[in-house]
Amino acid sequence: xxALLVPGPPRTPVERLRWAVADGWTVARRDLxxxxxxxxxxxxxxxxxxxxxxxxxxxxxxxxxxxxxGDYREFLMPGMFAQTMMFGVATTITVVSTDADRxxxxxFRSMPMSPSAVVLGRSMADLANSVLELGILVGCGLLAGWSxxxxxxxxxxxxxxxxxxxFALTWVGILVGLSIKPEAAAAAWAPLFxxxxxxxxxxxxxxxxxxxxxxxTWNPLSATVAACRELFGNPGMGGDSWAAQHxxxxxxxxxVALVLVFLPLSVRRYRRLDH
Length: 275
Description:
- There is one protein chain.
- With 275 residues, the chain is mostly helical.
- Helix content is 73%, strand content 0%.
- It has one domain.
- It has 12 helices and no strands.
- It starts with 12 loop residues before the first helix and ends with a helix.
- It is found in: Cell membrane; Membrane.
- It comes from Actinomadura viridis.
- This is Transport permease protein.
């Protein structure tokens, strides 16, 4: 009889990191394959942002005024990019909750793999999906008349900030998905709408009532949107508040803070699923 030798767990930090990334990529590939085998889900995820651009850009856009002047669709598109990144959290919550409820997550936990591989793989898969969604939305924006005006380097920096926001919000979605049932996860869209509306996504905070404008100015989503408008060279920048004057700094600080809080909480929750 031949015995199978299972390698022991890595001991050094570098070996543990390599182990986590390798196992995480294996899980990410599994998640991406499942996504590709659901054409209805792909169509919905990719068509939704396009419909939003058409609705807000052409149906409501004719009645919208940009503070300080400028084309509304140029103002709108950075907000649509960031809103799409935030709406992706609902998909994260639903998939993570469904896997946990069906026992898939428990099956992974019984394998000799990195303890953080499942949540890390989920974040990798979601980031890959977001790159595709963002690429389609950028193409839709270009057809609608939007463009960037500060050169390709600053435009890529704006895209990087959008993906950083999505990466940070993924860990919020993983924690919530591990904590609720699929029935509750189906309603994850509900709280996302006010979070994206009470921001500078569609109108400038200066055009809102004072108390609501203050909330919108400090919304983490507003920081990313304002930073993208600045980097793309689109209208809608400005404001007297500290947050309005330092959007790029906040667009980095908010996601980093979210990752520092929710990444360890997500890993801890994953390890304590039986408790």
